[in-house]
Amino acid sequence: MLSIIVPTLNEQQTIETSLSALQPLRRHGVQVIVVDGGSEDNSTRLAGPLCDNAIVAKRGRASQMNAGARQSTGDILLFLHSDTVLPEGALEAIDQALTAPGCVWGRFDVKIDSPLRLLNGVAFMMNLRSRWTGIATGDQAIFVTRDAFERIGGFPAVSLMEDIALSKSLKRLSPPACIRAKVTTSGRRWEKNGIVRTILLMWRLRLAYFLGADPSRLADQYAHARRDA
Where does it primarily localize (predicted)? Predict the structure, then answer.
């Protein structure tokens, strides 16, 4: 069985739409768990009727997703951002991907929902980079067998780059399955902060992370840059 874990924080504008898209999967036995990081809006109340379990955990995607994994019952875990929608046939694609010998995890290609055409190129480069490096981003809907997730100890307790850290650990177990079907993620952060500004910020933070910078300091820099945008 598949368990989908959705971390949220102040997502009342989008959470009903995002979870409504998962209802057909729930009718096929997929478990949906929403993990709120202490929203100050109505996110948790709106999510309640549209998921199997809505819980509150320490703020931070890593801690929230780990909390959701502990509450889940599926033998496959999928971590889905609250502004990302799965493609049709996602469940079958995951099942097929994990039948490959030795494969324990994977991710989808991504497209960005935005009228800004340049973001088509951004998504293309994200997918290409992921195939080349074997590193997945949270926007790509990472999925993993429960056994593999528990073997690596789940998401590391970091404030940023938790998706990269998880990917690096999982790569030691197997290469990722790269599903060409595309999840659709919101382009709102790009539209709000600016495409070039966002690209340069993420490149700088990723480089700093790979050079050994403290993820908590990088998280502070990321939050500060978003406030100033």
Answer: membrane
Residue 201 lies in a domain: no
Look up the pTM and report it: 0.87
Strands (E), 9-129: 31-36, 53-56, 76-79, 84-85, 105-113
AA letter at 1: M
Torsion angle of the four alpha carbons 35, 40, 46, 52, in this order, in degrees rounded to the nearest 10: 20
pLDDT digits (tens, 9 = 90+) for 149-193: 999 999 998 877 899 899 999 999 999 999 999 999 988 876 666
Q: Is residue 214 part of a domain?
A: no
Domain count, the chain: 1
* CATH code, 55: 3.90.550.10
Radius of gyration of the chain (CA): 17
Domain holding 70, by residue range, is: 2-186
Residue at 209 is within a domain: no
Q: Does the residue 103 lie in any domain?
A: yes
Token readout for 22 is 């998962």
Q: Which of 113, 149, 165, 20 is nearest to 34 (CA)?
A: 20
